[in-house]
Specification:
This protein has no helices and 19 strands. It is an all-beta fold and about 270 residues long. The strands form 4 sheets. Strands 1-8-9-2-3-10 form a 6-stranded antiparallel beta sheet, with no helix packed on it. A hairpin with a 5-residue loop joins β5 and β6. It starts with 7 loop residues before the first strand and ends in an 11-residue tail after the last strand.
Length: about 270
């Protein structure tokens, strides 16, 4: 069974200023409120360079939650947060004795200051089982060193996993049309990860490109892309290696060429394979 839960998202004002930090620290709490009692299921502390992203996975007997946060620093000192939540909650038993689950996928985007707290209710308001609340508070941090994750598993009945990492946020996408060995159209776009960007190519229409880091590889060198538009009536997926063009023949004389790479320089150089 699938039911859409209405999520509540709030930004709570705390104290502080908005100067740009060298590093960012995120304090993450999962809180359960039931019968007037407030119980912290877990608390995680993530500290890393500005632009650090993280994923929180919470698996319990009655629900699962996967929350990913892409945190883009802005010139004004705020954080452009794009949150994606996948939730699954036990909703009873069918007539045949099979478990019923409520599932939902949510996407949120908000600009947060270092003096604000993100509050998310992944399953909406309080129900018979109480209220589950997910809080994320960004804090300024300084210093050097690798990413650090500290988890305080307050409740032994839950299983919590937290991953933090640096990955490309912005990509440069280029497209050109070659006919009889000559470039007849060319375009480019700067695209945020997971967002469809458009490149206009005269006479051929727009080409849409959605870039994402290719997991389990060098994300600064390999990019997964989804290509759409008039030339691609069916979604086409491909893997791009940095600085390498990929060819997509249109007919016997015409070829569409695409190149997508992170806009930021990769930390280490390497050859494409």
């Amino acid at each position: 069974m699938r039911a859409l839960a209405i999520a509540s998202v709030a930004l709570l004002l705390l104290t502080g200023t908005t100067a740009l930090a060298d590093r960012s620290r995120f304090i993450v709490r999962c809180i359960e409120e039931r019968q007037g009692a407030r119980h912290t299921l877990y608390e995680a502390d993530i500290d890393g360079p500005s632009g650090t992203d993280f994923v929180v996975r919470l698996r319990d007997r009655g629900f699962t939650l996967v929350a990913s946060f892409v945190n883009e620093p802005t010139a004004s000192g705020t954080i452009d947060v794009r949150a994606s939540l996948t939730t699954r909650r036990r909703e009873g038993t069918s007539r045949n004795g099979l478990p019923l689950w409520e599932e939902d996928v949510q996407e949120h985007r908000f600009t947060v200051r270092y003096d604000q707290e993100i509050e998310i209710l992944p399953f909406g308001g309080a129900g018979a089982a109480g209220l589950l609340k997910f809080d994320v508070r960004p804090v300024r941090s300084t210093g050097a060193g690798p990413l650090r994750i500290d988890i305080n598993d307050v409740s032994s009945r839950g299983v919590i996993e937290v991953d933090a990492f640096r990955q490309p946020h912005w990509y440069t996408a280029e497209a050109e049309v070659v006919s009889d060995g000559r470039v007849v159209a060319r375009g480019s776009s700067r695209i945020f990860t997971g967002v469809a960007g458009r490149i206009a190519l005269p006479s051929l229409g727009d080409v849409t490109i959605t870039p994402r880091p290719l997991t389990r590889t060098d994300v600064w060198r390999y990019t997964e892309i989804a290509i759409g538009g008039r030339l691609f009536p069916r979604p086409t997926r491909a893997v791009q290696c940095r600085d390498v063009w990929s060819d997509y023949p249109i007919d016997s004389k015409t070829t569409l060429r695409i190149r997508v790479a992170p806009a930021e320089p990769e930390p280490t150089k390497g050859e494409c394979s």
